[in-house]
Each structure stands twice: as structure tokens, then as C-alpha cells.
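## Example record

The block below lists the input lines for one assembly entry, exactly as stored, with component labels intact.
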Amino acid sequence: MSPDPAMTATAPAAEAAVRKSSPGTAGGPRRRTGRSRRIGLPYLLLLPALLFELLVHLVPMVIGIVMSFKELTQFYIRDWGTAPWAGLDNYSVSVDFDAPVGEALLHSFLVTIAFTLLSVGLCWLTGTAAAVFMQDTFRGRGLLRALFLVPYALPVYAAVITWVFMFQHDNGLVNHVLHDQLGITGKPPFWLIGDNSFVALLTVSVWKGWPFAFLIVTAGLQNIPRELYEAAALDGAGMIQQIRRITLPSLRPVNQVLVLVLFLWTFNDFNTPYVLFGKTAPEAADLISVHIYQASFVTWDFGTGSAMSVLLLLFLLVVTGVYLVLTSRRRRTAP
Amino acid sequence: MRRIRAAATGAVMLSLALTASACGGGSSTGGGSNDSPEELTYWASNQGAGIEIDKKVLRPELDKFEKQTGIKVKLEVVPWSDLLNRILTATTSGQGPDVLNIGNTWSASLQATGALQPWDAEQFEKIGGKDRFVDSALGSTGAAGQDPAAVPLYSMAYALYYNKQMFADAGIDGPPATWDELAAAGKKLSKDGKWGMGVEGSNPAENIHHAFVFAEQHGADFFTADGKADFTSDAAVAAVKRYVDLMAKDKVIAPGNAEYAQNQSVSDFAKGKTGMLLWQSASANLESQGMSEDAYGIAPVPVRSGTPGTGKQVNSMVAGINLAVFKNSDNLDGATEFVKFMTSDAEQKILNTAYSSIPPVKAAQEDPAFGSPADAVLKDTLATSAVALPQVPDESQFETAVGTAVKELFADAAAGREVTTGSVKAALTKAQQQMPRK
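Predicted C-alpha cells for the full assembly:
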């Protein structure tokens, strides 16, 4: 991995021979060796960490990719070295959108896209709005800030299972308020099954996600000099103008990272739908992470499940890549 | 410099070793051994009203086993929601328990993975022979013509539990014997916020058990003779529709039941919110929820007409728990010894009493402890009118696929959407498409 130490051990002689012919560089090799040693040391010290990173991160990924090319059904899972190679079969089944498996995957993919866009958008909007309102000091600001962060601080399972109780049809708080007290709905709706499950999932996801946006934007706001606002106020800019002309442009680098992170987290979120709906999510809220889990564990066909995971990985890589290229280009062309 | 290089080499070697061993974990070709003769790990399924109750029931028995054999048993009670996944993970990694409980309907599916020790004649001889067990229980231990993958441990059957007081108040003479009678009784009970019957609409496993019995009564099989999925026959569609119609058309089940999956229907029955419940071995569970034994009656599950029997008169699946030995166990002899202990006449009596199930061991079943009217109904059902779920490798996938289809149909019914022959057929078609291709 790191050739430097080995090179420095054998190279000095040869190097010294070369150097001899060019006067004025005496003492060079010695200095060079010392410098490369100094350069090599940090890498050496990083090496174990790098290898462990490979071990815990890349090795499982590579195994997953290998699995996606195998016919890994219940007959082979005990000894999956013997599972026959499936070539591209698992992939062609996954992307054949006219056949049931591919069609279901596509449906799940579209649901996930819609869910992610809405959730990230709402999280960002709520988080930024709250952060901007909390920018000026007032009594109780610290308390409110702490309160806002509670959903983010709660353990996922505890938080989501509370929502499950609230969304229950017969005894849930949501129906009690909406139906029994406010009388908005004709009859109590179902939230955990059927089409409303999408709304339930989105609600929990935004509730859980916006404090993070709030936290990051709040941190970003600290870096905007107060003088900018004072100068703008002197020039007659109102609050909307100030937000448009000062706050948002100054937050751009923060927002770029924030939106990407929120997108990846939301798109891949497994815990929220799994705790809300259990192993079989309703069709309207069939997020891709649970869908792939189901595709693997329901049919015991881990090859196809892995192929779907690899496709998802590729999609997220492309999205992330395009996003980074676009945002960095914008930054470069910006004055 | 030299020290750094040594450290680097060490780190590389360690990493490589870890990588190699991590990869090696996946493919566990070897069979079991007797390398660790003094210890066993036992995964028990959750049979009591809670995991703690199971531990309380099992621990003294395991201590008894340790006293007899010197083998220490490490117990883990695994909830039903996790059990199958845990077994699959153990199968894939080769790292698992020595002895484990499995739902008897999974026998053929797990048998196909090769993870469980087959019980051939010689193996059975070690625990006293195959003919100690009741035939119906043995019928749910693996595919026909192969050595069983497991040994029956607890037997259960579905029965109709009904609230005596609510029946008397509504002027219903006795428990219904046919579905039409059940619908009529249910309509009388469904008033003033109370309902005729409860179901676990969002629990695929519960759904499949009932769908299977309805299918039998309509003369439908979910699998062809050669083990292929056949979910969409007219009879199968009619059967599933009849079941869901209890909520959709007869309206004897509260719509809220469509999202039940945590045994809420048992609580509703215990609290007198519903008058009827189709359940297996509910007595201990009802008692723990404060419903005394004389408050409810137990009757056979209804049929379409006539009396329960074979063929179209089937009124229950052969429910139960099997005990299996994990092939990768490092204490195969000890595991066999443990199975012998758990299926002994004495232990069978103790355990099945605690769980209000029926012993699958003939000698234990004849014990007067299992002579109550409730046990008589269950024993009679098991002996004359219960059928095992299909013993095919795809059984576990079938449970999830069709069970989920029924869950979605209940969701439709609950939301007030019409449940038609067409919509049932569409749901079952989708389920069939999810079945393995090969």
C-alpha cells in the first residue's frame, strides 16, 4: 500500500550515484530521505485506519455486489459459495418494468422520489424559517431552540412508535383531534394502512428531520456579520429583502451540503417506515429501502435483493456526483 | 523507522487476517460436531403472554435438564416478529443456536435450506421412536417423502371463543356452527360500540391461517400437486373473499381491526369489546388479561354447512411448534439429548399445561390434565378436522405473499372500498407474482 519506506531503503545508493554527477546538490539525498520519511509517516499512521475502513465499509459492499450476480435462493443460503452464478439475470428481472417484480420496484422508486423531495423540501423550509426567526435574541430563545431539537435527539424507535400510537385508527390522538374534536373528517381515517399512510410517513419524516436543518442553518447564520444587516436596514431593505439578498446567499455553501445530506438520509431511511408499518409497508408508502428488504426476506431471494441494492447505490452515486459537479461549477462561475 | 515498518506490517497482517476471517464466516460448509459438549444454546419461540413469562416457564425445566445431564442451556426467547429472520441469518452465517423452536408451517421451507438436522429413523430412535408422536403433528414436520426436519413440541388448533354473557344478552342460543350462523350472531352482537368478532387484519401469518381454512372449505389448494403456486383459482378467490366479507359485507368486524397486528383482537375479546374470536390456545393469554375461564365458551371453528370433518369440512390448520436441531451445532449429542428431554412425557405435560397447548406426544395427551372441555375441542379438532399447511419449500414465501394480500383487502374493506371478486383476484394475482421464479 505504501511504497515509500521500501523505496527509501533501496533508493539512496542509486540516487547518490546520480547526484554525484551534478555538483551543488551534495547532501540532497540525505535531505530527500528525511523529507519523504516525514511525508510517509502520516500515511503510515493512517494505514491501519484505512484498512479497517476498507474492511468494514468496502468489503461488505463488494460482497453485496458479488451476491447480486448469484442465484442466492433458500436452497443455497446455507452455503452460498455453491450458489450458481446468475449472470445478469437478477438485474434484468429488477429493471424489466413490464414484469411484476420490476414494475413494483419502479413504483417503489417513484414513491421514494416523491417522498424524498417533499420531505427534504419541507425539512429545509421549516428548519431555515425557524432558524431565521431565532436569529434575533429574545426571552426564551434558548429554551425554544432546545425544544426544537428534541425530535432530533430522541431515539428513532421510541419516537416513531409514539407516532404509531398517535396514528392508530380507534384510539389514536390524531383521529381524536381531527375527527372527535374538530369534526374535520366524516369518519375517522386510517393512517397506518391504505393511501393516507404516505401522509403519515411524510409527517413523521419531516418531524424527525427538520431539527437537523434548523441546527445546521443556525450554525451557518452565526457567520453572517451583523453589519451587513445594519447596512441593508440603513439602505431601506425590509426583512424579506434582507433574507433574499443577505441571508440566503450567505447560507449557500451550508445549504449545498445540508440538502445533499438530507436527501441521502431521507432516500435511504429504513427505520421510520419499518417501525411505522412493519415488514409489509402499504403500497402508498412503499419506500425503496423497505421494498428491497422485503424483496430479499419475503422471497428469500437475496441475489435479486442485492441487485436492487446495487442499482440503488448506482443511482445515489450518480445523483450525488451530478449534484456536486453542478454546485461546484456554480461556485466557480460565481463572481 | 524500523519500528514504524514493523507496526505497519503488523497492521496490514491484522487487517488481512480479519478480512479473511470475515469472508470465511459466510460459507459454512461443515456439518456439526461435538466440540462443546457442556453447553447448549436454545432459541425458544414466544409462547406465553410475554417473553418474561416464557423465561419463567422454561428456566426451571432447563435447570432440571442441567442437573440430569450436566449440560448448561443458554436460553433466548425470540419474538415471533424476529424468529424467521433470525433463523435465516443463522443459516446464512452458520452461527446459530444448537436447538431452536420453529413454527411448524415453516418446516418444509427451512428443510430446503439444509440448515436443520434431518430426523431419520436412527435419530428418532434416540428420543424413543417416531410412533410416540401423534400423526397430525408429524404431518407438519417437512416435505412428504423426506426425513422430518424437526420434532413436534406443542400442538395447537383454532377454535371459536365466544363471550357467554354477550351471547345471552343478545339472545343467541349457542355458538354458531356455520359461517352464516356466525354472521347472523355477529350482527346481533354488533351494536353500541361492540362488535361481533375480532381479527388481526395486519398480521400476515394470522390472515394466512384463516385464508387456508376457508380455501379448504371451498375445495381450493394454494399449491398444485407438484408444488407450484396456484393462488388465483375461482375457489381460492371465493374463499379469501368469504373471509374478508366478514368485515366488508357482513360488517361483524370493526374496521379498526384492519390495522391490528399486536394481538389487539385478543385484548378486545378479553375486555368484552367483541363477542367472538378465532384463536389457537387462547386460554392462558385470556386469563393473563383478566378474563376468567367460565366467562367464555369454546366451540369448533364454523364450517360452510354440516359438521367439521375431513375434506371440505376442515376447520383448522394443524398449528404448533416444532423443535429442531441446527446442523452447525457444536454439541449434536447434547442437542439430541435436549430434544429427548423436552419431548419426554413428563416435560410435555408441564410445558403444554403452562402454554395451554396440546401435547403432540400420545402418552402425555392422554393425561387427565388435558381433559377439560376446552382441551377436548382442541384435541378433537386436531384428531379429526385439522389439516397441515402445504409442506412445500415455498411455504414461508406463500405465508407472507398471500397474508399481505389479505391485509391489503382488509385495508380496502376498512376504508369503505368495495371488495369484489375482481379485486380479490387482482390481490391474489399480485401475490402469486411475488413467488420465487424457479
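The longest strand of chain B covers residues 39-45. Residues 7-29 of chain B have pLDDT under 50 and may be disordered.
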